Amino acid sequence: MSRYCVSADQLFSRTWRAGHPFSPRCGRFRRVGMLLLLLGFGLVILGYSYVTDSRRVRGMAEKYLSQVM
User: Fold this and answer.
1) What pLDDT band is residue 36 in, cutting at 50, 70 and 90?
2) Is the pTM of this model over 0.70?
3) What is the DSSP letter of 12?
């Protein structure tokens, strides 16, 4: 439970202490997983930009309409 500070002298004093000054390292599996997730999201972004490229879509539409007519 947290305790409330009654006096103004105790407002900036830490009521808890951290166990270690540095944060613990992530495991190898987690680092590799995050790297794969980052690469996957990058591929999704690149794929979306390729699929919605205006010049490519315009060319495909012109080709299709010329074949239809």
Assistant:
1) very high
2) no
3) S
* Tokens at 35, concatenated: 């790297």
Query: Residues with Cβ < 8 Å from 13, sequence gap 6 or more?
Result: 5
Question: Is residue 32 within 8 Å of 38, Cβ to Cβ?
Answer: no
User: Mean pLDDT, to the nearest integer, of 47-51?
Assistant: 92
Greatest extent of the chain over all pairs of C-alpha atoms, in Å: 86
- CA distances, 43 to each of 28, 33, 37, 53 (Å): 23, 15, 10, 15
| Average pLDDT of the residues of the chain | 82
Three-state DSSP class for 54?
helix
In angstroms, rounded to a whole number, what is the distance separating the alpha carbons of residues 51 and 41?
Answer: 15
